[in-house]
């Protein structure tokens, strides 16, 4: 059984997503009450090697201070090295079984885009699924076509007990509509990382 977690206000971020000092952005978001944090260090100028590991370690420290689960995107090795609270993998990334075997009691999240993928994630022992992108998103270069709210509604009605977080193009303005599908939370990147008032943004989400 994995550690307990709350998907309600799930912040995803890497250095490329921030217009100012990333650790300050993260700390403000933690102070404002995000319930989970995922480090997703992707994009053109993403940190690599030691700089990446060191940045991850600093993010983890902040999350520990505020008692918020620290999740690493896609990097099983780093997640194990840092003893992160969990990992989030996409459809292209394998490694749920490997990670589950090596890391007992860790949180495993999987990105899914169809009901079939959701069923597969559940069967493979994922702890939660991220469904998206719900709307058009500018954060990923290779973003898929939006899956919309219908998939969320379908997923929540078929798997009422399984934790689901919505991601992709979610803003302070549309988060209310997204939540009406019954999802357990919303995951955002720029809604927080580009906000001039992070406290307000997190509260409004």
Automatic annotation (TrEMBL):
Name the record gives this protein: Thiamine-phosphate synthase
Catalysed reaction(s) here are: 2-(2-carboxy-4-methylthiazol-5-yl)ethyl phosphate + 4-amino-2-methyl-5-(diphosphooxymethyl)pyrimidine + 2 H(+) = thiamine phosphate + CO2 + diphosphate; 2-[(2R,5Z)-2-carboxy-4-methylthiazol-5(2H)-ylidene]ethyl phosphate + 4-amino-2-methyl-5-(diphosphooxymethyl)pyrimidine + 2 H(+) = thiamine phosphate + CO2 + diphosphate; 4-methyl-5-(2-phosphooxyethyl)-thiazole + 4-amino-2-methyl-5-(diphosphooxymethyl)pyrimidine + H(+) = thiamine phosphate + diphosphate
Q: Name one GO biological process term.
A: thiamine diphosphate biosynthetic process
Q: Gene Ontology cellular component? A: cytoplasm
Q: Which UniProt keywords apply?
A: Magnesium, Metal-binding, Thiamine biosynthesis, Transferase
Task: State the species of origin.
Answer: Solibacillus silvestris (strain StLB046) (Bacillus silvestris)
Q: Does the keyword Magnesium apply?
A: yes
Q: Which family does it belong to?
A: Belongs to the thiamine-phosphate synthase family.
Q: How is the cofactor bound?
A: Binds 1 Mg(2+) ion per subunit.
